[in-house]
Structure formats: structure tokens, C-alpha cells
Specification:
Radius of gyration: 13 Å
Order of helices and strands: EHEEHEHEEH
Number of domains: 1
CATH topology: Rossmann fold
Mean pLDDT: 94
CATH architecture: 3-Layer(aba) Sandwich
Strand content: 15-25%
CATH superfamily: Flavodoxin domain
CATH class: Alpha Beta
């Protein structure tokens, strides 16, 4: 299946590393990555699935993303959230709930070494 994906991040190093691994696992997919501070909203229109990742809850760069997700219906889209912090995963799940995207289980990355088979399994559960 060919589809389009978007990954929105806070741009921190730990999240960039996870983003690169996610992109690498999305074979046959057009993947666009953008930082939340550069996000305009239009990037979500053509995608089938989107991923959101940040290191800490409520980064200032996410203010526009939060506002937009609170006022848009993305029920036809799938979403995956990821972080290195459990509190951040709760925050991310919370900002996505109002847009009604099909939210998969959040991915908590506990160490710098990510188990690729677990990552692939998580991605498949989202898409």
C-alpha cells in the first residue's frame, strides 16, 4: 500500500533520532518531516498518517499545533505519538483526542538503542 506520512517534532536530538528510524521503516511511503515551529497545518491535508513526537510536555513550538488539532476533524487519518518521556506521551495523546484521528498506542522510547522489530511492530499497528 502506498500512502503519505507526516512527522511533526519539537526538533530535539532524541526525537530526531527516533524520527529518522520511523522514516526508515516506512518503506514505500512518501514521508515529510517538519518541526512544529515551521508547521503551517497544510502539511496534514494530503497525508494518510501522521506522527507527533516531542521530548517534554507542552513545548512552546507546539502551541499552533495544539490549537489546530483542537479545531480540525482528522477522523479519516491515523496518528502515532512517540516520546522519551511518559508524561509527554500523555500530553500528546491529549492534544490529538479532539481531532478524532485514529490514535494508535503511544511509543515510549526508553533508551538510545531502539529495538527495530518493536519499532516496526508499533508502526504497523499505527498504519
Amino acid at each position: 500500500m502506498s500512502y503519505k506520512a507526516l512527522i511533526i517534532t519539537d526538533g530535539t536530538d532524541s526525537i530526531k533520532n527516533i524520527t529518522q528510524l520511523i522514516s526508515g521503516e516506512l518503506n514505500g511511503t512518501m514521508v515529510k518531516t517538519c518541526s512544529a515551529q515551521d508547521f503551517t497545518g497544510e502539511e496534514l491535508l494530503p497525508v494518510d498518517v501522521f506522527f507527533i513526537g516531542c521530548e517534554n510536555p507542552s513545548p512552546s513550538s507546539f502551541s499552533y499545533l495544539e490549537e489546530m488539532l483542537n479545531h480540525i476533524n482528522l477522523a479519516s487519518r491515523k496518528c502515532g505519538v512517540f516520546s522519551v518521556n511518559f508524561k509527554t506521551l500523555k500530553y500528546l495523546c491529549n492534544i490529538v483526542k479532539d481531532c478524532e484521528a485514529d490514535l494508535g498506542a503511544p511509543l515510549h522510547v526508553a533508551s538510545k538503542e531502539i529495538n527495530k522489530s518493536l519499532l516496526k511492530k508499533w508502526i504497523n499497528s499505527v498504519v
